[in-house]
Amino acid sequence: MKNYETVIGLEVHVELATKTKIFCSCSTAFGGAPNTHTCPVCTGMPGSLPVLNRQVVEYAMAVGLATNCDITRYGKFDRKNYFYPDNPQNYQISQLYLPICRNGHVDIETSAGKKSIGIHEIHMEEDAGKLIHDEWEDCSLVDYNRSGVPLIEIVSEPDMRSADEVIAYLEKLRLIIQYLGASDCKLQEGSMRADVNLSVREVGAEKFGTRTEMKNLNSFKAIARAIEGEKARQIELIEEGKAVIQETRRWDDNKEYSYAMRSKEDAQDYRYFPEPDLVPVVISEEWLEEVRSRQPELRDEKMARYRREYDIPDYDIEILTGSKHMADLFEETIAICGKPKEVSNWLMVETMRLLKEKNQEPEDISFSPEHLAALIGLIGDGKINRTTAKEVFEVIFAEDVDPVAYVEEKGLGMVSDDGALREVVENVIRDNPQSVEDYHAGKKKAIGFLVGQTMKAMHGKADPAKINKLLAELL
Fold first, then answer.
1. Which residues, at least 6 apart from 231, have a Cβ–Cβ distance to it below 8 Å?
2. Does residue 131 share a domain with residue 205?
């Protein structure tokens, strides 16, 4: 069998985090009742006129700068004509001839090493509505809430050769955009969507094979499976002497197979022409510099700084910076308590454990840095032990309670009366002669049992280190 190489390019659609739509003042909030976030503009009523949302341009510029693109100083919008029920005007306002960003790249790293993935362009456009298929009534309904939500489409060069490279590229893009605050990039809510253009060719061949485009990909796992499935399908066709047809295919992740949707359109099929209702977008040097000056510290820079400033492992740094929300929480907590190792430990161990148990993402963390810092302070001041702290943290994680008030209210503070603690330890020694004998016979583990008995008698409200010290002294 011949050796084949996969050639992959991506079209990534990202819904921008503006409060209003790209050409009208309707809300972009996710999850509203059908057709409640609409107006004459985003439902394509005759005579309505679009007005460009300035924030959309600034988000597009910010993403372009962060992905090393050239920013187009004089840009225009174009009409992309097609007829579909979720497209109320029967055209989409997009950018074909003068997209806002061009000629960029992002650097990725996989097990195969480092690689630069080219970005052909980034353009601004409006989203379409959403079709809801009602199987009971055997009909389709249209919700126009999403119609007019601002998008950027990031078009890569066909530089990727494996599913690993694709996932690394998407994760890098997602983190860049999240750090910029331009989008939450939630694949499950459709605010980040990827279409995969894929072809295969013999290893060493210069000419690309015939590509297909796969849609309906709403998770990184689905994208990886779709790439492997389509690669196998195309190789099988070529091996059988059949032609690969250029078409758009729909990936069914349950069946792990793609189905033909329609023949792949070319630009001329959409009859693009300049949008007559919008003026050109002129980006001045001052405006560009204003956006550039607001660019935040991105993940790569943040990781390098953490290595310089905090004495924590590289693995922790990778996890903490893998979510902007987690990184912000880490830094804000340190600013309050000044204990980076302690903060890292609470986020890396207990927080990650609870996130996994509850099947949540780091972005779902709702507790405040003030309350995590206060919990760390209670431990440092000897007011609670670590066992109690873990119990209190679970409540903080779930309800963001004030740990100081909670510990006082529930009576969880450690007993500070050394005389009372000594009395309990003496009782434990008297009641467990066998353990005392084992300890004196050289079985040092016996002290662990005695510590446990003391903690039990104190209802967990004692410092294990202090108990250890007292036991060693009295034994």
1. 4, 6, 198, 200
2. yes
The token pair at 345 is 């430990």
How many domains, the chain? Answer: 3
Angle between helices 324-337 and 163-180 (to 10 degrees): 50
Q: Degrees (nearest 5) of the Cα angle 181, 186, 189? A: 130
Quote the CA–CA distance of 394 and 385 in Å, as a whole number. Answer: 15
- What's the rounded Cα separation, in Å, for the pair 43 and 200? 41
pTM (predicted TM-score) = 0.84
In the predicted model, is pLDDT for residue 316 greater than 80? yes
- What is the model's pLDDT at position 415? 58
Is 60 exceeded by the pLDDT of residue 209? yes
Say if CB 137 and CB 33 are below 8 A apart.
Answer: no
The domain containing residue 466 runs over which residues? 418-474
Domain end position, chosen among 386, 410, 434: 410
Cα(426)–Cα(120) distance, integer angstroms: 76
CA 418 remoteness from chain centre:
49
The answer to whether residues 403 and 424 belong to one domain is no
Q: Are residues 48 and 96 in the same domain?
A: yes
**Last residue in a domain, options 287, 320, 354:** 287
Q: Are residues 99 and 163 in the same domain?
A: yes
